[in-house]
Amino acid sequence: MAGARPEQAVLTRDTDMSKTEETRAVIESMVDGLNDHRISDIGEFFSESFRWMGNQGCGTKTGLREFQDNWQKPFQAAFSDKVCIDEARLYMGEWAAAFGRQEATHAGEFMGIAPTGKRVEIRYMDFWKVVDGKIVDNYVMVDFPHVMQQLGVDAFDGDGWENLDPKT
After folding, report:
1. What are the tens digits of pLDDT across the range 116-137?
2. Domain ranges within the chain, ordered by starting residue
3. Model confidence at 2, in pLDDT bands (50, 70, 90)?
4. For residues 96 and 128, is the Cβ–Cβ distance under 8 A?
5. If we measure between CA atoms, which residue out of 107, 144, 106 comes closest to residue 125?
6. Angle at 3 between CA 2 and CA 9, to 5 degrees
7. What topology is assigned to 18-156 in CATH?
8. What is the pTM of this model?
9. 28 conformational bin, left if phi > 0, alpha if psi -120 to 50, beta if neither
10. For residue 11, which of 101, 138, 104, 113 has the smallest C-alpha distance?
């Protein structure tokens, strides 16, 4: 790319590195809360006005109530016996990130797919910003096409780029 470059890492440029341990404590407690299937009191970890910004299929939730009603409740209705397993976590000041998987049973309708009772892996990546002990922003990527594939539905109708991968 010749010429001027776009400004990079604007959101993390001024992070307060002294907040790293506080951020770690909030995120670790929040993940425990999610693994305990908490909904009504999840505000212990999230600000009332926090933003949950997901990829296509997940949507964007503004505020705690939208997150509870339009993510947590439908997700738990579709997937029972779920456990969240962060495979890696990174902490930097007011920011944290993780990637991992949830293991769950497909117990309710998901993306128009009737319950199968199959055990599935739901891969994700999360980035959180913590201010004053609460999550204010949560950027999320959930691999719904992978979940659908496990349930027998190809979201890409055979045109996914994994077709370009070498065959082993």
Report:
1. 999 999 999 999 999 999 999 9
2. 18-156
3. confident
4. yes
5. 144
6. 100
7. Nuclear Transport Factor 2; Chain: A, (3.10.450)
8. 0.91
9. alpha
10. 138
